[in-house]
Amino acid sequence: MTDVLIVGAGPTGLTLACDLTRRGVACRIIEQAATPAAGSRGFTLKPRSLEALDDLGVADRILAAGDVRGWLRFHLGTEPLFDLRLPPAPADPSRPYPNTVALPQWRTESILRDRLAEFGGKVEFGRRLTGFDAGDEGVTATLEDGERLHARYLVAADGGRSLVRRTLGLPFSGSTAEDTRALIADVRIDGLDRGSGTHLWVSADGHMLVARPIPHADTWQVVTSLEPGDEGDLGTLRHALTTRTGRDLQVYDPAWLSTWRYNLRMVERYRVGRVLLAGDAAHVHSPFGGHGMNTGIQDAYNLGWKLALVIQGAARPELLDSYEAERLPVAREILADSDRRMKGMVPPRVVRPLVRLILKSVMARQQRRTRHDHPVYRTGPLTRHLTGSHGRVRAGDVAPDAPVMLDGSEHRLSELLRGPHFTALAFGVAPDLADPRVRAYTVVRPGRAGLADTSGHLHRVYGGREGTTVLIRPDGYVGLMADSPAALADYLERL
User: Which end of the chain is more exposed for a tag (fewer CB within 10 A), N or C?
Assistant: First the structure.
């Protein structure tokens, strides 16, 4: 028997497998495809996802393989309307990853597979799940080759057509726009300027075409809306590029083509006993806003530490209910946001200068907002705020980073947070705590013994008065803020 069976080896399943394996939890990750996926699909990694991937030890690889330039050239019809070039934001003491990173999904998956191998795990390709039985003691899964796999928990990361979700009989509530389809492809294009970044064409009849260069390659990801009856093939793509851009572009060497239908759907339950859902198995939506891959990674990062604590006997099984309580509201917000963004991409029939002013302003604002896209759990069941608002951070927020001195050398707080543990920060008072799940630090002003906040930043953002105590969860969220270290033991006991 294994501890966790993960069905699906996309970014969601791989993130969970990496997190569990590094925590010493035995897991198997199966994928029905015979080989790794080749398509670019999800293309944007957001700052919060980068923070999670930093904890897993791969953020530097992601940055090296991707592109942080937010360049866009917008065309209304065949004519350029405006260029939008937001320079990369500089890192600040609070956020080490202030920018989104453009990176094709196949590359993200490759980096995560390599990291999983370093932790001692591997993806089992060509293993198709055909059914499972779940009971109070665990799950028995049947694979197409006849093997029966026994696991304490099963996590469905098997995408929008999830067999696990359908077997459970969970409604996938929402809508499907049958006439709203798009073709997505990775191709070579001659005649298009890569230096301009992403190109977006919007026609008067509401059709769209997006072409964005794939970093460190000579290929492009192209997404184009389809007319009713259009085939999802290279001929259709060539015709769309010619007619919607007004240019004689040469398109060839397709590495991957796929069609997409506009779905806006989600489940209302993320856990059914020993079975949990994550990523597209739990929610699907439009690609606008770049939420898809990021939401799956963050689902897995929220779930991983909770599963590990329960399996290791360090927390009660009820802790797993907090996964749904925290992540389901996030999915609702994301579905609404992606729908708004998609509808907002089709401009009304107004005077062109007005379109230029409105769209450029709106799109710049959206890009800036995406850089600060950090879901919060302020009303979640694991959130306790037992102090006045002395700083700008509240329980349920992502813990801001800061420079600190420890044992005479400078570190980042994020370095101390890495790993499977909780982190307690007690300002000026040493916590009386002996808990193997927690690393505790007394935060002092420079020049005194302990964890020295070299810039005073920790005190400012956390409101670090004498006695203020902060407990940061393994996923980097603040779980507890209190005026006294005595609240720590009570919080941990509730787990």
Answer: N
